[in-house]
Amino acid sequence: MRGIGTNDTRDVEAPADPTSDGFKMADHLELEETKSAGATPAESFNYGIDPTHQKRVIRKIDLRLLPILGLMYSISLVDRTNLGLALVAGMQEDLDLAVGNRYTIIVMVFFVAYIIFEIPSNLILPKAGAANWLAFLGVSFGAILISMGFTKSWGTMALCRALLGVLEAGFLPGCTYLITCWYQRFEVGKRLAGFWILSVLTGGFSAIFAYVLTLLRGKAGLNGWSWIFIIEGAITCAVCIAGWFIIIDFPSKVKSFLTPEEKQFVIDRINNDRGDAIEDEINLRKILHHLKDWRLYFWAFNLMASTLPGYAYSYFLPVILRSGMGYSTSQSQLLSAPPYVLSAIMTYVSGFLGDRYKIRGPVIAVHQLITAIGMIITAYGRSNAFRYFGAFLGIGFLQYCVPGVLTYQANNITSHSKRAVASATCIIGGGIGGIAASVAFKSSESPNYGTGIWTTFAVSMVSISLIGVMDFWFWRCNKAAKQGLRQNEGRHMWFYTL
After folding, report:
1. Mind telling me which residue stretches traverse the membrane in this protein (predicted)?
2. Which of 149, 162, 370, 451 has the smallest CB count inside 10 Å?
3. What is the pLDDT of the chain when averaged over all its residues?
4. Higher local confidence (pLDDT), 223 or 22
5. How far apart are CA 237 and CA 226, in angstroms?
């Protein structure tokens, strides 16, 4: 459900007057008629641009924004999750990672740094500019990755992982923040899903790429795992340098990419949908005010429940395939890839259906439940085929959850300042999921990881319950808004997305 109304003047600037800057009074009257008939309000305006031109502008934005951000993020995701592949390619022996909890520590320090620097990075982005900041982060963590290929001790590797966490902290929230600022609420789901799909496929087939890179073993006196980091780091630097020339800034700041009429069209339609096309000032008072919103922590937990099994599969599936199912190192790397094809399909299908039927929470809950069941099958299946089916089920339904939760959150907040804080706090939950995975999936329990499996199951059930609580609260708020008893987010006849 959706509506249109006035802004919350505490957080955002007022939208354009409906009688000026591309709006016509006839459009406003038509809106009132179509709103009562159940039409989507934003679609009833013509904005002074014919519908064919409108579609061309949106497609122009899609092609300029989504592919490069998707490619840059997919590479960053590979960078942080290739540790498990490097482990089975000789890193464990070379760096003595089988001693104590060394591998667990190397996995965990990344996420500690990642969590700490989420919000600061997102606050820098609008001041530095989206292209400048995201490209800087990408080139920097690419350089760190290259250096990881030359490490000779586990302590140096841990330090590199911590630095990687500092630099990657702002990347996903920055990409999410930028994408959600360009589109209406029920356009975001399939676009975040499309953005995410590239990372899903790249992440899945990174296992095959990593296997190819291990064949360089012995070149320049380096083991195969070193070449995984060096080559992938070099690719990261190259792609992110190109990204600096391609990424566009926020709608109100963009210059040569759109004509003045097209820019006004984008601003008007966003204001018409949620009233926050123009950035409001970000300051400490606003940050602290936004952090009082209990929903931010529910969404953070939802994302933690989504990333915990994701990181578990990334870091430990190759180990399960090799040690638990008896496959060779090369077979375990190659078999890690196919489940991600199903996950790419499910991610887009669910994102598309969520936009079409304007629903978020229940779709996420179903995916989390099936993922939890898949992990149990992976751990306790009686045959290798059944366990591998569990990996298909778990990974296949898991990947939608991350863009699903980010869309769920983005649909239910307004103002740029809150969007910056909310996307960062949400992804802090994702970082906590990584820490939980590194702690719960104990090396001593390899290859079954009982503690990790049941921790993941419990967290998933709590997450599903929180979605139910939040959707019930949204339903009550929407009911009161329809009766004129409240204004959601300070906007008249504006409805939360369940």
Report:
1. 61-78, 98-117, 129-150, 162-183, 195-213, 225-247, 296-317, 337-354, 361-380, 386-408, 420-441, 453-475
2. 451
3. 81
4. 223
5. 17
Q: What percent of the chain has pLDDT over 70?
A: 87
Burial 97-124 (b: 16+ CB within 10 A, else e): beeeebbbbbbbbbbbbbbebbbebbbb
What are the CA-CA distances from residue 220 to residues 149, 216, 223 (Å)?
12, 9, 9
pLDDT at position 405, please? 94
Residue type, 102: R
- Amino acid (one-letter) located at 82: N
DSSP 491: B
Q: Is residue 37 part of a domain?
A: no
Answer yes or no: is 142 within a domain: yes
If residue 251 lies in a helix (H) or strand (E), which one and from where to where?
A: none
Burial of 245 (0-12, 13-18, 19+ CB in 10 A): exposed
Answer whether residue 36 shows pLDDT above 50.
no
Find the CATH number of the domain harbouring 150: 1.20.1250.20
Nearest to 409 by CA among 166, 192, 116: 192
Q: How far apart are CA 496 and CA 1, in angstroms?
A: 7
Q: Where residue 399 falls among pLDDT bands split at 50, 70, 90?
A: confident
pTM of this structure: 0.75
Residue 498 lies in a domain: no
**Residues 230-240: tens digit of each pLDDT:** 998 999 999 99
**Number of domains the chain contains:** 1
Q: Which domain holds residue 337?
A: 48-273+282-482
Give a yes or no: residue 20 inside a domain.
no
Torsion of the alpha carbons at 244, 250, 255 and 258, rounded to the nearest 10: 100
* SS3 category, 488: strand
Q: Are 467 and 361 in contact (CB under 8 A)?
A: yes
Structure tokens at 98: 């089988």
pLDDT band at 48, cuts 50/70/90? low
